[in-house]
Amino acid sequence: MKKLFAALALMLATYGTGECKDYTISTPGSTLVLTAEVGKPLYFRYYGTRASLDDVFASHRAIKAQAFRAFGTHCDLSHACFIKHADGDNATNLVVDYVEQTEDAQMTRLTIVLKDTAHPFVLRLHYDAYKDCDVMKFWAEYTNNGKKPISLQKYMSAALPVKSQECVLLHLDGDHGNECNETIEPLADGIKILSTQDGSRPSAHNQAAFMLGTDGKLDETDGNVIAGTLAWTGNFHIEFEKNRIKGQPTMIYAGINPVGADYTLAPKQTLSTPEMVFAYSTRGKGEATRTLHYWARHHQVLDGTKEREVLLNSWEGVHMNVTQEGMNSMMKDFARLGGEMFVMDDGWFGDKYPRDTDKTSLGDWCVAKGKLPEGIEGLIRIAKDNNLKFGIWIEPEMVNTKSELYEKHPDWVLRHEAFEPTYGRGKTQLLLDLTNPKVQDFVVGVVDNLMTANPEIAYIKWDHNMSILNASSPYLPKALQSNLYVEYNRSLLSILERVRAKYPSLIIQLCSAGGFRLNYGFMPYFQEVWGSDQTDARHRIYIQWGALDFYPANIIAAHVCSTKNKYTQRVVPVKFRFDVASMCRLGMEMVPAELTDAEQAYAKRAIAEYKRLRPVIQQGDLYKLVSPYDGDREYASLMYVNDKKDHAVAMFYRMTFTRHMPDKIIKLQGLDPDRQYLIREVAPEVEGKPIHISGKKVSGRFLMEEGIVIRELTADRSSRKPFNDIRDMNDYRSYMVELIAQ
Ligand code: GLA
């Protein structure tokens, strides 16, 4: 991206004229205004709906606030940067040096170069505005122009003043198997921080993403909303500072989390920060979501507009009990259901120490011959015989102390040399020191060796099940230890660059104990992310609901679990499980032969329908209709609409049954009000017996203004003889309908 600019740049520069100028950049629907005068601080004036300068300066949203406060002035408030200079001074006074505006086919970039009046320190602030969607990216470059190292104590990517004291904040929090829980709360006075300190898994607890309603509410379809997400693979820090002093904006600061990570910048060195991505919506958070999804698919996610295949992953089916026979029969059975890809998960590797438990073998990426006598070749042969593609699991940044790799290279791990490290999973897992170039070559080699030996591998699941528990690098000099949190992640990104240079179209799924690495910083290198180790369909509704706020359906892997969920032991009808997984990239995670014949027949129908409808689900616009958090948490509903608005898929879920439930009226969104739509149930649970509304034709206007009632959704089925092959539980009902414009 940055190279593109160099090639296509049209430069409009303002050098040292002393004139005060308002700089505007706009997307189709949003505008940012900054005021720059050489020798003076940079002022932020406006970010909001697309506006002329006349509109801006007449409006209540206009403001004059320092655009990027450095510690040194206004020391009573929060700051975007805090620099310890070579002479020990910790005050910085940034003024405008010059301004550049460049442009390419994709975006306009405004760059403001600031210099410190007291030290040889330069800060470049970049503001990028896309031409095809309402997304802007803010990022910065910190340069030490002196002769001695300086220390960056806080070095944000972005500062954004918001002219509102009535903000409502949405953020996502969670844990293993419980990711992306949505919290919506008024932004209170004081400082609120979303952050992680995990080291290498940015979304281990909080997502680096938020929505901010700036009109005193955060509604799905109404009101002004700023959505933000930091594209960074490591620790992040997103800070909201609100105080009630009249005229003071609410401040947003976003960037790398500086805790334990003050960055030593050598003379003449520049640190580029990750990009902070903002989307602006004047029509509620739903529009902000759709804008981010569009941006992600078209500009950030690898192969973002390509179709994703339906796969079976072996993990929940057999865990580490991988055998040739077991894999072969899973492949055959899945192929019969219409599957397209088979992924062999953990448990296939380790020669001296075969991987039977999580205590051994990470690092030894060769086949466990006892388990797979015919090797990966044998498996690929069976996959091909069954018309399936083949994929494989690796966790290449890790090692177990019981492994040949650790025996050979005990100095390749992150740990302090003077004391016992903290171990991760299996009490023997350690993280490789990616800052060491030899380790980088090794990790690139894990993929390269596998692919060279088995060029027909079509998919890799790249897992990462441990935090940086020992933040000491044997490779980095002592004086640079606090650079580790940044350097680990920069090294990882350079490894990913190398892998992608050689294998640009290999599908690589990002996984980290489920969804702990769900972050846009990874997505130029990965096609999809494993949403969560939680496969219980009830919990998955919440996890996917939250993830979909920021990430598009085609990058979230969602798998149908076995009839009794491995973790929660909950039994949910197979239809409900398929309908929940069909919200995102559908897959299965079980031994298919454990399904009854009727369930297998259903699975076959559901997979065929998903394949037919996936252009709409994976690429369509998402409209959220009923939040699973609403009311008594009985329902959830959402829909996808293609860009021509002639094909849509709506999904309805009921999670709790009570007697005599009233009809649930659900208003659809995103349709063309002037067209008639044929409603057709997708994969009815009993073939040939669709719900009552299937086959009816209704106008888009009626569906959006009066809504739809699926009577079967509230029906009491307890007195009905259960159709027990489909496990007809009374709590869990779900329906999918497609809407076809006539
Ligand atoms: C993690 C992943 C799972 C599975 C296991 C294998 O927990 O999230 O999907 O791959 O590791 O050990």
What would you note in describing this structure?
This protein has 742 residues and is α+β, with helices and mostly antiparallel strands. It is built from 13 helices and 39 strands. The N terminus is likely disordered. α9 links the parallel β27 and β28. The protein is globular, with a radius of gyration of 27 Å. The chain binds alpha-D-galactopyranose (GLA). Alpha-D-galactopyranose binds next to loops.
Ordered list of secondary-structure elements with their pairings:
Blueprint: H1 2-8, E1 12-15, E2 20-26, E3 30-37, E4 43-49, H2 53-58, E5 65-66, E6 81-84, E7 94-103, E8 107-116, E9 121-130, E10 135-144, E11 150-162, E12 168-175, E13 178-186, E14 190-195, E15 206-213, E16 225-231, E17 236-242, E18 250-256, E19 263-265, E20 270-272, E21 275-281, H3 284-300, E22 311-313, H4 315-318, H5 324-336, E23 341-344, H6 375-385, E24 389-394, E25 398-400, H7 404-408, E26 429-431, H8 437-453, E27 457-462, H9 484-502, E28 507-510, E29 528-530, H10 537-550, E30 556-561, H11 574-581, E31 585-589, H12 597-619, E32 621-626, E33 635-641, E34 647-654, E35 665-666, E36 676-682, E37 697-699, H13 700-705, E38 708-709, E39 733-741
Parallel strand pairs: 22-23, 22-31, 23-24, 24-27, 27-28, 28-29, 29-30, 30-31
Antiparallel strand pairs: 1-7, 2-3, 3-4, 4-5, 6-11, 7-8, 8-9, 9-10, 10-20, 10-21, 11-18, 11-19, 12-13, 12-15, 14-17, 15-16, 16-21, 17-18, 25-26, 32-33, 33-34, 34-39, 35-38, 36-37, 36-39
Helix pairs in contact: 5-6, 8-9, 10-11, 11-12
